[in-house]
Design goal:
Distance between the termini: 33 Å
CATH architecture of the largest domain: Sandwich
Shape: globular
Order of helices and strands: EEHEEEEEEEEEHHEEEEEHEEEEEEEEE
CATH topology of the largest domain: Jelly Rolls
Strand content: 35-45%
Amino acid sequence: MKPQPYYIVPLLIKQPTWGGRYIAQFKGIEKQISDGTKIGQSYELAKDSILLTKKTNLLPFLLAEATDIANPKWCGPQAQTINIQQLSKISLLNKFTQAKENSYQVHVRPGHEFDHWQPKPESWYYFEKGKATLGLKNNVDIDQYRQRCKQIYQESLTLSQKVKQNNLKIDEARIQLTTFIDQDHPSNYVNVAYPDKNQVFDLSSCGIHHSWEADPNLPHGNILYEVQLDQRDEVSSIRAFDQGKIKDDGDIRELAINDYFQALNTNPDANQPALYIQTTNSHQENGAVITCIFNNPHYQLTQIEFSNSYPGEETQLKNQFHHLFVKEGRIEIIHDDQSWPLNKGWSVFIPAQCQQYRLTSTTTAQVLKTTAGHTV
C-alpha cells in the first residue's frame, strides 16, 4: 500500500451527566447529533482507531454510549476503512474532552506499581477556562482525608441499597448524600485550580490527585485536549470519591480508596499545582509560529500556527508517525502532489513512511501535532 495520510474516524462518547454540545459544535456536526445528546469525549487517536482509506467530502464519525464503547454507531457516509493497527502500533490516546465533576483519582507512578495498577501519564491543554482540583493541600491530614472518603463511600452504599430495595426514592437519596458530603467535603483536602484558556498541565509524572470540577461561571465545564498513554481505565484510574453520584437504578461506582492513598505521592513539594503548569515556548520557523505545548518521554504536542503555506521542519516525519488535529481554521495536507482537506476539530494520521508533507491554508490556522517516542 502506497504511503498516504489517513482521515481518522473519531469516536464520540455520550456522557448524559457531564457532557455537552461543545465538541459537536466545534466539529460542525451538531445538526447530525440529536439536540438532547451530550458528548463528553471524542477519541481523536487510539490504539484501535478506524482510518479512511479514501478521501471523502463528508467525514463520518462513531457515536457510542459510555457504557458500551466497544459497539459504537457509524454516523455519516459509508466508506472503506482500515484499523490503525495495520499501519503502526499506537500507545497513545488523544481525547477532545468536555467534562465536569469527574471522580477524585490518581494514577500510580512508574516504578511504584502495585497489584494490577499501571501508570497512565497524561497531559492537558485547556481550550477554555476551567476548574480542577490538583494535588493535596499543604499540611493536610492524610488519615482524616482517607477516613472522610470512606465515610462518604459507606453512606453511598447504604443509600444505594435503600433505593434498590424500594425503601427510598432516588431523588431523596441524592439529596441525603449531598447533605452528608457537604458536612466535610473532600475538596477541603485538595487544591482547587482555575486553568486559563490555552494553559497547559503536564501530569505525566503520575502520583498526583486530580479531578475536573463544575462551576456556575463555567457552563461548558472543562474543555481540553488530552494526550495520554492508552491504558485501560480499570487498571489505571484509582478513585476515592465519585462526587456523590447515584445512578437512577441505585447503582454507584466501585471505589478503591485504600489503593488511591497508597498510590498518592504525598510529598508536599510534589503537590503544588504550579509544578504541573507548563510554560510554552514558541519560535518562528518558515513563516510559522511553532509552540512546544508539552514534551516528555512518553509523547510530544506541538502547535503549528501558520498562514498560506508551511513546508518546514515540523512536517518532516523522521521515522515516526504524526497525528494532526485542527484547532483553528481549515487546512490542506499536501503529500505526493495530492491534497487532504481538513476542517476545524478533525484529525489525520500520517504514517512515518510518508517522510514529509506540507500544510496550506487560506486563513490563519492552528494545528496540533502529536508524536511519540522521543526522550526528553
